[in-house]
Design the sequence.
């Protein structure tokens, strides 16, 4: 099996706030990420697709197709957007890199028709990233 | 509809420390052959990078596997304070008994971080230099090995 990874950068703003918490609890739990004016990151997305190369093309999948899928599903939705207000898939969720990675997995998984989605990695900064994979004992994300 | 997902969070930390690779079990010649310039009795140092990966359910109230407000001070207390700007062979008790290779440092860091209360430790990866890195995910290997 071969794993193929494609990278995409996008810039977006967000802040962390849970309306179920008091103002004091929001500040304590989320710290400076609770600033209601928001702040931004240069996110780096790494999408890994696993599969056997097609013997006729030598490719697991056409990276140009993957690039187009990432543009349509992720960049068009999230690049230069405010994640709290402008991305419906994140509505009602705290836009942490864990939740962003899970949302991107759900968006991409049905669109990957050659190979299968293996991992979605979202870097919020070079020192912090979340990985989303299929639960090993779950349905495997292929159903 | 896709199945259940597994989320992990990785945070990178840094410390600078000196060490010397030398084993009293070997002769001077053997030490020299085995460890080369890393055996210099005066020691030498590295800027280590420690990548800590934790996993667990994402709390729907916070959107987090674990709050960095808890992970950062834990790693600071367990790893950075005792290791940063130290001579590992003398100042970290475990390396009076074992050679502070990056393999052993990686396992020791994993051992110290296993007690993190807010999530499960999945993996520790350390970079001794930008060319050398070492990973430890417990004696059973990576928990998600099954899907690979």
Sequence:
């Amino acid at each position: 099996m071969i794993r193929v990874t494609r990278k995409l950068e996008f810039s977006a703003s967000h802040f962390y706030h849970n309306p179920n918490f008091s103002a004091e609890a929001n500040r304590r739990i989320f710290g400076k990420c609770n600033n209601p004016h928001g702040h931004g990151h240069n996110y780096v997305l790494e999408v890994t697709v696993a599969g056997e190369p097609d013997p006729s093309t030598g490719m697991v999948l056409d990276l140009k197709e993957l690039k187009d899928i990432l543009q349509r599903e992720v960049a068009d939705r999230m690049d230069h957007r405010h994640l709290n207000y402008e991305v419906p898939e994140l509505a009602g969720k705290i836009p942490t890199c864990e939740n962003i990675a899970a949302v991107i997995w759900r968006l991409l998984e049905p669109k990957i028709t050659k190979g299968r989605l293996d991992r979605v990695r979202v870097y919020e900064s070079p020192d912090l990233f979340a990985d989303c994979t299929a639960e090993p004992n779950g349905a495997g994300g292929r159903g | 509809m896709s199945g259940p997902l597994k989320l992990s969070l990785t945070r990178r930390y840094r410390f600078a420390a000196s060490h010397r690779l030398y084993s009293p079990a070997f002769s001077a010649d053997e030490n020299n052959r085995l460890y080369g310039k890393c055996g210099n009795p005066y020691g030498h140092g590295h800027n280590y990078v420690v990548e800590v990966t934790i996993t667990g359910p994402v709390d729907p109230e916070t959107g987090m596997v674990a709050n960095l407000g808890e992970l950062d001070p834990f790693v600071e207390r367990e790893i950075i304070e005792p290791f940063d700007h130290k001579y590992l062979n003398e100042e970290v008790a475990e390396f009076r008994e074992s050679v502070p290779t990056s393999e052993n440092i990686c396992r020791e860091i994993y051992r110290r971080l296993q007690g993190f209360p807010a999530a499960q430790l999945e993996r520790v990866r350390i970079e001794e230099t930008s060319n050398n890195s070492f990973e430890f995910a417990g004696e059973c290997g990576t928990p998600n090995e099954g899907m690979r």
